[in-house]
Amino acid sequence: MSDLWEGIRQALWLLVTLDADLVEITLRSLRVTLTALVIACAIALPIGALLSVRRFRARRFTIALLNALMGLPPVVVGLIVYVLLSRSGPFGVFGLIFTPTAMIIAQVIIIVPLIASIAHQALRELWSDYHDLLISLNTTQRQRMAALLWDGRRALLTAALAGFGRAIGEVGAIMIVGGNIDHHTRVLTTAIALETGKGDFAMALGLGFVLILMAIAVNLAIHIIGRTEQEGRW
Amino acid sequence: MSNLFPLTLTGATIRRRGKRLVGPIDLTLQDQGITIVIGPNGAGKTSLLQMMHGIARLSDGDITWGCDLDAARQAQSFVFQQPILLRRSVRDNIAYPLKLRGTPKAKARAQADTAGAQVGLGAMLDRPATFLSGGERQKLAIARAMITKPALLFLDEPCASLDGRATREIEEILQRAAASGTRLIMSTHDMGQARRLADDVLFLLNGHIHDHAPNPQFFDQPQTAEAAAFLNGDIVE
Q: Does the model's ipTM exceed the 0.95 cut?
């Protein structure tokens, strides 16, 4: 119990003094995860929309696969990305291993199935509402997807936030491909793992509270920017 | 636009899961007036309209227009029995078909404002479409269908579950449209409405055209016993 109090005290102290190391790894956490989130959304949201409007042979299989991949073990993803990016791997020439870019790649792979799956669930409902009208208006497939993505943007926000949540708290994959190098690839989660390993529970807890606070802050900020719960209930 | 008609259906049939919904229908329609489709529930009114419009796949037979199919599809609109509202403002709903056709946003919105005002939605253009009442929703759907200035407008029981006043307002809108040269094909359950609007009447029974006659001949001298019974308010099966 005293560890918990000590952790809260440490967290407050780190926050109040704006500890330089803390600020640095927090910003890096944010940068890596938000970049991964933007890239993943750009890939996953159109996939979700396409799966809603288009009937093709492997559609059921694709949906089942995406649902299964939602539970993709991050450690395995990290391992595969590590093998691909390592010096001797097929993409080794790019020198990406142990860089923030490698961490972004791993996070994108982890959250694309999650975001695509949730987006598909939401847009499928919308498509069944819109189907007759959009067919009647001679829309192209692209226009149908655009209508769904735009009118379903509130629901897609939820998908994006779920992706953010999974990416920001992720430690297994980025530990492997990033290497937790101080001032280079150390982020909040890997720092927590390190402090825990060293036995400095108070520091680990302090970092953990900062992580939770940041996740809440980002969620609130996105909700305020997206003005959910304000302009009607779509 | 003027070469859309004649619309010719030859043996047009829709079957779903082994059940015949409508057809085979042999019918030719010319480019004038308001055609009203009547008949009991399940007679195939909706299927007939959707089949002509091309949103229900034909199982058999053929539908031809006076022009090629793409041009024909561009020149017609459909108003559904349950209005389908996009989750947008009233204005953006009405402007949507124009946007699909590449009209610049400002111009599309300006046209939508005019069209909205014409159907009496002028005060609600900025509201989310889902805030509208039943009658207002149907007016929105009609304004949206009319904004592309279609040569042909299908309406599937547009006044079902609306009260007298909303029905009268919608009929006025439709009569204005017909007067300005839009061809209307509309199904209804309301015999009073059919009498008021129809130039000719299609009486549908069990998926077949049982009777096709001009108004008022259809109502005054029905040619078949079933049509007479239906007009009398008897249950026709």
A: no
